[in-house]
Amino acid sequence: MKKITRRLSFTLALMLMMVTILSACSSDKDEAASTVAADGRKSGENGFIANRDVTGRIFLEGDGAQLPDDQVNNPVAQKIKEKTGMTMNWQSSGAADGLQELTVALATGDLPDVIEAYLDHGGRPEMPVLLKAAREGMFTDLRPYLENTKVLKNYLDPDFLPRDTRENIMFRPDFEGKVYFIHMNIPAKNTTDADRIHYRGGMWIRADIAKALNVDPTSIKTQDDLFNLAMKIKEGNFKDNNGKPITVIGPRKWGGQVVSSLFKNYDFGNGTQFDVLDGKVKHVAETDYALKSIDFVQKLLKAGLLDKEAFNMDGVRAEEAYNNGSYAISPYMNIAPDSLTMFEKTKYLPMDQMYNYKGEDAIYEKAKSGSQVWAIPATTKNPEQIVQFADYLASKEGKALWNYGIEGEDYKINDKGQYIFTDKVLSILNNSPQDERNTIPYFWGSLLGKTDVNNNKDFGELIRGANSQPDRYKLYFELMNYGNPKYKYWDGYTAASYLSEVPDIEASLKPVLDSYKDVLVQAFFAKDMTEATKILDDYRAQLKAAGVEQYEQYLQQKYDKDPSSVVFYIDAFF
């Protein structure tokens, strides 16, 4: 019996060894095949990278619908595969909360080859989540691979990146030279003001109502101006596109959230919660501006001028309402090429030149933009191939493919070097724009490829499609330049960006800072200002207990040493 058992054990061991050897041989064979193209090109030759299928996951908000129905077999993807050997398949649940999805995925380790997350600056709530994952070794150091790229190597040039991107996101001192994230949507080094797109983020008003009341939206400068205008609109009994009564002020275009542009005169810190008052860094809750903001919103609510769901409405309902003209005023929307259809249905005009609390009516913008990041999990094999793939997508050839499609079929280049869509594409854009993504997978390609951006230089137009549809984009440029706005540009860290540098209070202070918008909503709906003041007093006590004074001292030291290093402006969101 023992002999049989030994013989069986030996046989099983031998079989296991053979399987292991065969598996290794198979693996080696597959690995070798993956770096040789069908036409004999080896990795690195004439653009070929590897025969590889890459899977990514998008942690954005509801953007999955912009992906092609077939991400691998559409003509552009096939052309890119022909050039590089690579295919790309992005996963998206279309969830409304990308941050929550990201947090869960990182906590469970459920990660594909590459991930994409929202991050327009280092003070975003996604940043601590991404930082924690990087510090725990969950991402690949991309620095060695950037040095072997053609386009992405620009990230190694200090002059290429905005200060916040360079020092707070990608090349953080605590990373000790390693790079875990690639910040996207960075303008090219040769970008000028003529190449800049202004999205006019802020308050907007229905154009027909402004005309009916003979109101110039640029003349609305104060909270009293806004309130008086809102009352006139209410008294005017205006209707929506279906003939139903409207509500004067609604939520932001993307759904309910506190946006400080609604009370811009009192927006101490311009959306960052912190600013300098009488030489001292303070949180907005420690100033009179907080109560003034609450008092103004209560006034709007009591007069029936503000939708009671303005701070919690879902994005689908909000956008549908603005498409239908159901609100006269939005406290926050912007004009972007992919939202132009809404403005064609119901035209709104920017009313974004109200005074801030300092009495300035200029519109603040980042000197150089940046938004979204991608990262490669540490579990991904051959990460250099994905970096090379992203580098190709960021090249002019790659950008042309996912921006304009196949030359000759989807676009032509005129004698001025301008890219013009063919009648085939124009028919899709005019008759079934929702199908454009299956012919020209712009969003799909932009996730890894949209950086080093200068559309004017590369394609002869500021906005993709403007030369092909000049009548349509006439409206876009009209809105972008409406009212001859003045701009102030900034570059640096926002106040919230420094929170990770004080780890002894970060864990306790961050949730309290994040809850400020919820505190405001409670105060907005308090029965009177006495109750609202009590809510704010309680919040101040929470701030103090969580270490806000220590954080203010830290910001004060940074500010006193270099005032430009702390930017007390970001946007209209808390």
UniProtKB/TrEMBL annotation:
Residues 1-23 form the signal peptide. It comes from the Bacteria. Keywords: Signal. This is Extracellular solute-binding protein. The keyword Coiled coil does not apply. InterPro entries: Bact_solute-bd_prot1, SBP. The keyword Signal applies.
